């Protein structure tokens, strides 16, 4: 029984935070999320704060990113499973206010990490996971400063909220044995960026976002024993990222950009779930949490074409490497090397503008060397996403 609970601790929490949401504005998503060297809307608050210096007027934009998660598994031990999570939606809000000719202040609210994985109580690997969820939100306060006519720098802070809910069963078949941990905390991070535009045709951007550390405080509950205990996880981390981008504008109509982003998932090492169970359950009070993920890269390329009369068309592609090795595989995230195809459109008026983007993602992964044979098998994912925003310039 204690071994079963320890198995939850070693895998479930990791899967609650294993998904980095790179697409944070439709004008970026539409061109394969290659936007670091463009960053010419209020969404520069997230993508590259140095780009805010390109804005001559105050603006605010609000929208959403919605994704339909379709994952299925054919397991080596027999049987098939299907993810029950369905559609997940996250808000995106950005604003920018020029303070003077050289400095622009920006703010935003988005969800750079998160999503959830629910496989239900009656699944073949329920002893590994039944559900894992991370609700995550970040408020950004940043600024962009024009050093010269060709160089701008940016930076600021992010205040993050993380709310974790992970669950699993202790027995092979469904019963009232669900073991769960729920915890939350706030964390603070910082970001630095630069944008160099040596000519009208060329632009280079770079942005670094620091890791965020959380000390999760909450409750662990054992349904089998009918008891709960105060619990904590110290040192829970969302990774730092470093993105670089190059934009080429051969003429007034085309903007072609390529980005590479590094995500430092290897900082998720081994942590500890500490609880205060009484009496005979005291053996559950200190459980190791070995994450041991690997750093990953995101490769993005895309283009935007000015159709005239304020209309813009976009298309792109990005490839996101898996950060989850076979040894630590857990279906709550079902991470894999994943391909994303994107299309987008936008229209800019005198004051009002809008943008929309569609993504189709696919991956196929065979897991054959997992610590638990319950999760070994073939996993197939097919995702569809829609992002929309509206922007107003004052």
How is the CATH topology named? Porin
- CATH classification class: Mainly Beta
Shape: globular
Question: What is the ordering of alpha helices and beta strands?
Answer: HHHEEEEEEEEEEEEEEEEEEEE
Report the total helices: 3
The first-to-last residue Cα distance is 62 Å
Q: What's a quick, concise take on this entry?
A:
With 394 residues, this protein is mainly beta. It is built from 3 helices and 20 strands. The protein has helices at residues 2-16, 26-29, 44-47; strands at 59-75, 80-82, 86-98, 103-110, 115-118, 131-146, 151-168, 179-196, 202-209, 212-222, 227-238, 241-248, 254-263, 270-275, 286-290, 296-308, 311-320, 338-348, 352-367, 377-393.
Description:
With 394 residues, the chain is mostly beta strands. The protein has one domain (2-393): Porin. The chain contains three helices and 20 strands. The protein has helices spanning 2-16, 26-29, 44-47, and strands at residues 59-75, 80-82, 86-98, 103-110, 115-118, 131-146, 151-168, 179-196, 202-209, 212-222, 227-238, 241-248, 254-263, 270-275, 286-290, 296-308, 311-320, 338-348, 352-367, 377-393. Strands 1-3-4-6-7-8-9-12-13-16-17-18-19-20 form a 14-stranded antiparallel beta barrel. The radius of gyration is 22 Å and the shape is globular.
């Amino acid at each position: 029984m204690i071994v079963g609970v320890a198995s939850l601790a070693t895998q479930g929490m990791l899967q609650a935070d294993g998904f980095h949401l790179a697409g944070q504005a439709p004008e970026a998503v539409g061109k394969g999320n290659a936007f670091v060297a463009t960053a010419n809307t209020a969404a520069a608050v997230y993508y590259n704060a140095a780009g805010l210096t390109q804005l001559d007027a105050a603006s605010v934009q609000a929208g959403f990113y919605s994704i339909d998660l379709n994952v299925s598994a054919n397991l080596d031990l027999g049987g098939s499973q299907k993810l029950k999570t369905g559609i997940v939606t996250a808000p995106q809000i950005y604003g920018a206010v020029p303070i003077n000719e050289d400095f622009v202040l920006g703010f935003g609210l988005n969800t750079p990490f998160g999503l959830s994985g629910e496989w239900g109580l009656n699944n073949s690997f329920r002893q590994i996971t039944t559900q894992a969820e991370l609700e995550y939100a970040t408020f950004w306060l940043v600024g962009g400063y024009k050093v010269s006519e060709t160089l701008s720098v940016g930076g600021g802070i992010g205040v993050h909220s993380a709310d974790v809910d992970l669950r699993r069963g202790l027995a092979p078949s469904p019963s009232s044995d669900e073991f769960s941990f729920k915890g939350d905390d706030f964390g603070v991070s910082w970001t630095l960026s630069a944008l160099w535009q040596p000519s009208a045709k060329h632009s280079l951007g770079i942005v670094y976002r620091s890791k965020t550390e959380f000390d999760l405080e909450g409750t662990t509950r054992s349904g089998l024993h009918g008891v709960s205990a105060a619990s904590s996880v110290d040192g829970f981390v969302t990774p730092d990222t470093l993105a670089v981008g190059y934009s080429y504008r051969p003429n007034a109509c085309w903007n072609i950009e390529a980005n590479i982003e590094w995500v430092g998932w290897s900082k998720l090492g081994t942590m500890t779930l500490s609880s205060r169970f009484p009496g005979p359950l005291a053996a559950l009070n200190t459980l190791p949490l070995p994450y041991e993920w690997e750093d990953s890269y995101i490769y993005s390329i895309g283009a935007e074409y000015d159709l005239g009369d304020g209309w813009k068309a976009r298309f792109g592609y990005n490839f996101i490497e898996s950060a989850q090795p076979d040894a630590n595989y857990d279906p709550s995230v079902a991470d894999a090397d994943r391909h994303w195809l994107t299309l987008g459109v936008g229209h800019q008026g005198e004051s009002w503008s809008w943008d929309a983007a569609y993504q189709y993602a696919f991956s196929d992964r065979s897991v054959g060397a997992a610590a638990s044979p319950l999760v070994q098998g073939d996993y197939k994912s097919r995702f569809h996403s829609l992002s929309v925003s509206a922007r107003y310039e004052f």
